[in-house]
Design goal:
The protein is α+β, with helices and mostly antiparallel strands. It is built from eleven helices and 14 strands. Helix content is 35%, strand content 26%. The strands form four sheets. A four-stranded antiparallel β-sheet has the order 1-2-3-4. α3 runs antiparallel to α4. It is rod-shaped and about 130 Å long.
């Protein structure tokens, strides 16, 4: 358009126009917008709003696009011919106003998008991709944190508790121990291994408080006696599993249960494990035991299983109605420590009404001997040299 061409009323003044012309043009546009967006309360007001909207629409090529869209929406929503004769209140509906506003925002977004360079679009796409990846990773991590570990699948099977009909008399069973201490189990116990295994691993989940649940693993002897237990929090189990160690007199058990379900029991021992290795220690008391023949009645008198003695039994003395016997016995006939197969020296005592015993592995017997106190206070000692003594302390 040339500078001297006629200009529509209300159209923006051309660049370089006098300040007064610019001000007048802006004022005219504001007046048209005010009238177009007014809330008419009569037919005349509605007609004026429609006329102003139509005039603004004609100027749409010369005004900003967001104003153009808003004008078109209002002009279409106000029709003087639809105004009732006797209704002075006819404001634009809420839907019309929301539609006009939403359309304006959409037009502005399109205009902004058209102004973006390819570099801007690549940056925006990379940012959106990074945000999406971060959201996905966060969701996966959250799901992993709250999902049950694969190890818990064993609790889906029935009959988790071990059978107890073969439990030795007087031995606390695993399920009995839970009842006695009032434990509240959330899952289990599940016992790994075969019913006849000397040692098995039992696992379970226990409720401690509203904020603490523990995962436990316990060594079970003869499928009945909880021998040693280790517990960790749920969070620790998910991260590292539960790992425990039982150790006594050179005998060690390492056991574990992992979040992936793997479990293990590994035993290790120190010292002499066979009669030949014990002989190599040069213990005079063993020489004395091996010089006597097996005495079944004597074994029965001190409640030693027939055939349970590897050397002996040897009568050491009788004091105050008690008989004292020495023997080298198999581990299962000594003080009960399942899984430890090393022979042990035992000092056994019987009064005819009952009996008792004390046992020690070969290295401890060689170093300290064995001390045994019977029920009426009588104290007996037997050492590696073969010497025996009993009396009141």
């Amino acid at each position: 358009m040339r500078e001297d061409a006629p200009r529509a009323v209300g159209a923006p003044a051309p660049a370089g126009a006098p300040a007064a012309a610019l001000a007048a043009s802006a004022e005219r546009l504001r007046d048209l917008e005010r009238r177009a967006f007014a809330r008419p309360n009569s037919r005349g007001g509605a007609a004026d709003a429609a006329a102003a909207a139509a005039e603004l629409a004609r100027l749409r090529a010369l005004t900003p696009i967001d104003t153009e869209v808003r004008i078109a929406g209002i002009a279409q929503s106000v029709d003087p011919g639809e105004l009732p004769e006797d209704d002075p209140d006819f404001p634009p509906t809420l839907g019309e106003r929301l539609t006009a506003t939403a359309t304006a925002f959409a037009a502005r977004a399109v205009r902004c998008a058209r102004g973006l360079t390819r570099r801007d679009l690549r940056r925006a796409g990379a940012s959106a991709l990074a945000l999406g990846l971060a959201s996905t990773v966060g969701g996966v991590l959250h799901a992993t944190a709250v999902a049950p570990p694969p190890a818990y699948a064993i609790f889906d099977f029935a009959d988790q508790a071990p059978e107890n009909e073969r439990a030795p008399a007087g031995v606390v069973t695993i399920d009995q121990s839970f009842r006695e201490r009032g434990a509240l189990l959330l899952s289990g116990p599940h016992v790994f291994g075969e019913r006849d295994d000397a040692l098995r691993l039992a696992v379970y989940r226990e409720w401690i408080s509203d904020s603490l649940t523990e995962v436990c693993a316990t060594i079970v002897a003869e499928s009945a006696w909880p021998m040693h237990t280790t517990c960790v929090s749920e969070q620790s189990f998910r991260a590292e599993g539960v790992v425990g160690t039982f150790e006594r007199d050179g005998f060690r058990l390492d056991y574990s249960w992992s979040p992936d379900g793997a479990h293990s029991i590994v035993d290790s021992t120190e010292g002499a494990e066979t009669v030949e290795e014990i002989r190599a220690l040069g213990i005079p008391a063993l020489d004395a035991l091996e010089t006597v023949a097996e005495d079944v009645p004597l074994s029965q008198a001190v409640f030693l299983d027939p055939g349970g003695a590897l050397a002996g039994p040897l009568l050491l003395g009788e004091v105050d109605g008690w008989i004292f016997v020495g023997a080298l016995v198999r581990s299962q006939d000594a003080m009960w420590q399942p899984g430890d197969d090393r022979p042990q020296f035992c000092l056994l005592a019987s009064s005819g009404q009952g009996g008792t015993r004390a046992c020690a592995r070969a290295e401890l017997f060689l170093e300290d001997g064995i001390e045994l106190q019977v029920s009426d206070g009588l104290l007996a000692n037997w050492d590696a040299s073969g010497a025996f003594d009993a009396g009141l302390p």
